[in-house]
């Protein structure tokens, strides 16, 4: 239990750090652009909303930093993230709330597929080390260095423009009504195919390579040699003795990998104009919508932290040493 | 040279703080790695310190070399109390007391040629004025540990040498500053059997020629018998028996020393006697709160008294002493 | 993208793969030549090419990249090799000029981020204490906060900061992983023995850090720098693609931004956005290739996988039939076949390394009799462990069984022996553990760390006794555990919860689960204290009497074998030099090496015997001359010893007729002139 308590404690600390970074950013940056923005919006905003934005971006000159910080945390605690400029005057929380399910669906699905398939491929290539399968390695290395959004551009060109198999933009057809109806689901899935394939293709190489290398390392361990000497079925040697140990670093370093996948997904969404968080961030940045951009950073960070906590729970289940508080 | 000990440790104790455990996160657990150890090293003599892993012998060596500092107790060199960790006082201490570490594969910097490793102490301690003098000294040191021709070895990197050769380099390095005391921490345990004897011989020759006080730390009581004048047996942070090498090995009094000797492979001794068989062998982890004798749980002769009180140090004949209730005067004449 | 940032954690790689003593840089010192693998060479070549383009690109660009022309959106042609953009700019010129900006930002940001990582990592690792705790928390926090979103928000606040701003943003968000890696490395360096030794020789603190420690960090820092350059190049492209890269200048990311702004794909203008992306991917690939090469040096197992690949073709077919001479004509032909359980003949195992083949086991022949303990003694590097693995046929690449045969006679009355090397895979997995089990030196490494003791005891039952119920299997597990003196409450323990002695008992219990007829033990007690070793040896003796299995007991400790083994084979430089009854080897060693080994162990009881040792050190197996390998160290050498290798044959009388020795002293032709009193093994009976 102590292991989990420590991890939760750490993620709370990390979340607090992210919030604090968010709070300090506009105050540390030279020439606060939000000030200009606020001047432009004068008259369109309620005094209350103006005050909230001033606290958020450090423009309330009459108050102390500590006071602002406390007010800021208070606003956050009530779910108030400010008002979006792009979708004026919709509150940021509403805008994000509409986009979040799309991203969770797309990125969650793509990450799980990529992790499972990539890990399995890595296990196979690692087990058959030294065989012809190793010719896959240079290709995989190349794939691992390809920018997500460039792959997305290629996908758009090939499948959208040349072959016209899939829609290249948006999350659903313009004529569909959002809801739980068949045409909408069908359209949503066909819109998600290209972005998902892009994310899977771009991220899978990482899992394959790291799993393969760990597999090769673990297969050199005495306990794997012993499992062979025991005459155990190959399946058990590969899975329980090899992969079970080889996967541990991948799970432990999940945070890092997830950070990169999420980053790639943001750009991918931007290419496909997919109605998720990433595209929203792209829009926010293009329109200098700082309340929205900062809130999205916060939401992504918290989502990644939660995913990490899940990965830690899995790690604890896989590795008895971690459970007993050695880590 | 005075007749007293060159290096004298009195009542050295080192307590480590352990990481807090899951079971008891609020209690700070401690480990008495070294517990009230006194020891004297004399010029020209070899003292052996025998103990199993976890007995605290390596910690004791680090205390004696001042790489770590005791929780309590004192170290005297030529009768003068010293405590130094960095700076000039520590450098002065290292001129007197040098150390040879266990693993010759790790104790030499892989990026330095042998000549540089051996020369460096000469530079630090400004033993010689000119470069030529230093080079000559390096040659002489390498010859002393039988690495001939010295020029050949001085230009090698450690990875080009065998384990035995590396350990000779480590010895040469430690002798560079003409120390009075050499602490050899398991100097041959990582080496091949056929090489061990040679290295111990080199150490003993250096002791003889240079009048060194040599501390030979080992887990192998048989090799201690062969190359040391006196043997101290360490168990769970304490020295439980000490005396002349032949006395301790041929007339061992402490039940632990007896067990150690019985357990050592020795084709000459015929069939070994059966010892006690606790589930996990003889545990070495010293429990911090232990009252009484540390060894009693594994001791065939344990008495009620052993659990109640710390055993006394009982002097025996010929400079031998033992820390055991069996030999306390009130228990009548020693039974051994 | 993820791969490059998931190198095996250096801490794990070193503990898992290499000898614990060998430091990172010592491996790089030794392997600077070995580092130039094909993938590293390819990586360096590609990277070099782009560096050159970055330098000369703006001078060789055919056009001004900013100059607009009327030739809009033209495909590749002679005039515009890579076509033109929406505004008629030459794509090739943009690409060539952009290379400089992209590479400049990447290398600058990589350098700044590396500097940051080195500063924080080394401070954390070398200072330790509270500073370390605070800095590692900071590092870990930056590690879990996703880098790109933070970079995007940061960059959004400085929209026109140009390259400097990009460098700051990228390095501020990318340093954390490298800092962690460097910290782990610095931490382990601080505890390294040679740093300790330097300190003990009176070295000052500053020199300790900057002369003795930091140079060893350089390889790690270099690898981290490459990783960070890759991170920078991808992040720069990402930021520029979102329009945050300062749209005034030319870089690969900016080209993609404009291509995307002007929806190049919807017009099929692939020539516009394919080249810059390809450039990014190629530079990334080159950096990744170099890093993988470094990984191979740091983790030797990855290397041997590569070597195994190049050797696979020649090692695929089973080696047995052709290599050995006629069976039964081996040196032990005098034995009655019924007594022989395992017949090893002309067994040869080779490591195929980059530096050529190392014959670790050379032409080894011996018999294992029913119910006996056969000891195999030898020093490190003599091939004894390789032999143990190869007999079990679990040798690891690059080790390959080159020749010989392993004949197993399951029952005394069985007509034909089974050749273990040529049997089918299916038969082999049935025979394994059922007939032959193995116990390794390090029980910590031979137990799977993530499954409990019971599961490791029962999984061989599951595959070999498929008709047993779960209850029966668990009962058997408890039974064998009790046999080695461990209570059933330990069934659900994991290996890390057991002490060294207990783990080794579990490993022995595991070997006995199926009651095999042969148990191979490779230094099973070497890692243990002598008291625990004694207990385990006694227990083994009891178990052997009760269960009647044969043991091949491999150790460097000849004195232990004198007590425990029935017969002993002494190995030197990959071959058996003497084989005979244990008490005979003790009283009357025939080979000068055996004689010498016997004088290496001081005795603890009785009058102190002479301890002599053997001068010199064991030979290098890579360059064995065609001579007796012991000749340089031998005090008895004859002229013939330096000219060819002696065969393992029966020693001449009065040696017992079952003693085999590979030494010309016992060859009547060579040593006829020598008086018997001068020949080891002959003197005492003469």
Which tags fit this structure?
heterotrimer, A: 327 residues, MetI-like fold, B: 336 residues, Rossmann fold, 11 helices
pLDDT under 50 segments of chain B (min length 5)?
271-289
- Most extensive protein-chain contact, per-chain counts: A-C, 107 and 104 residues
Q: Regions of chain A with pLDDT < 50 over 5+ consecutive residues?
A: none
**Spatial separation of the terminal alpha carbons of chain B:** 38 Å
Distance between the termini of chain A: 12 Å
- Share of residues in strands of chain A: under 5%
Count of the separate structural domains of chain B: 2
Discrete helix count of chain B: 11
Largest sheet of chain A: none
pLDDT averaged over residues of chain B = 85
Note the run of SSEs of chain B as H and E.
Answer: EEEHEEHEHHHHEHEHEEHHHEE
SS summary, helix count of chain A: 14
User: So, the CATH homologous superfamily of the largest domain in chain B?
Assistant: P-loop containing nucleotide triphosphate hydrolases
The portion of residues forming beta strands of chain B comes to: 15-25%
CATH class of the domain at 92-289 in chain A: Mainly Alpha
* Sheet with most strands: strand arrangement of chain B: 6-7-8-3-9-10-12-11
* Radius of gyration of chain B using CA atoms only: 21 Å
CATH C-level class of the largest domain in chain B? Alpha Beta
Residues in helix, % of chain A = over 70%
Please give the CATH architecture of the domain at 92-289 in chain A.
Answer: Orthogonal Bundle
Estimated helix fraction of chain B: 25-40%
Question: How would you characterize the overall build of this protein?
Answer:
The complex is a heterotrimer of chains A (327), B (336) and C (686). Chain A is mostly helical. Helix content of chain A is 76%, strand content 0%. Chain A has 14 helices and no strands. The model of chain A has no long low-confidence stretch (mean pLDDT 84). Chain B is α/β, with parallel strands linked by helices. Chain B has an eight-stranded mixed β-sheet with strand order 6-7-8-3-9-10-12-11, with helices on both faces. In chain B, a hairpin with a 5-residue loop joins strand 11 and strand 12. In chain B, helix 3 (114-124) packs across helix 4, helix 3 (114-124) packs parallel to helix 6 (163-175) and helix 6 packs parallel to helix 7. The longest helix of chain B has 18 residues, at 193-210. Chain B is globular. Chain B starts with 6 loop residues before the first strand and ends in a 13-residue tail after the last strand. Chain C has 686 residues and is of the alpha/beta class. Chain C has a domain at 38-68 and 98-301: MetI-like fold, CATH 1.10.3720.10. Chain C has helices at 10-17, 24-31, 38-60, 91-127, 129-144, 147-157, 162-174, 176-190, 193-200, 205-241, 252-261, 270-298, 300-315, 320-323, 384-391, 425-431, 443-446, 453-464, 470-483, 500-512, 530-547, 558-564, 582-587, 592-598, 668-671; strands spanning 340-353, 356-369, 373-377, 399-408, 418-419, 436-439, 518-522, 550-555, 567-572, 575-581, 649-650, 660-661. Chain C has an eight-stranded mixed β-sheet, sandwiched between helices. Chain C has a four-stranded antiparallel β-sheet with strand order 2-1-4-5. In chain C, strand 9 (567-572) and strand 10 (575-581) form a beta hairpin. In chain C, helix 4 packs antiparallel against helix 5 and helix 4 crosses helix 11 (252-261). In chain C, 55% of the residues are buried. Residues 1-25 and 309-335 of chain C have low confidence and may be disordered. The A-B interface holds A 1-2, 324-325 and B 21-22, 25.
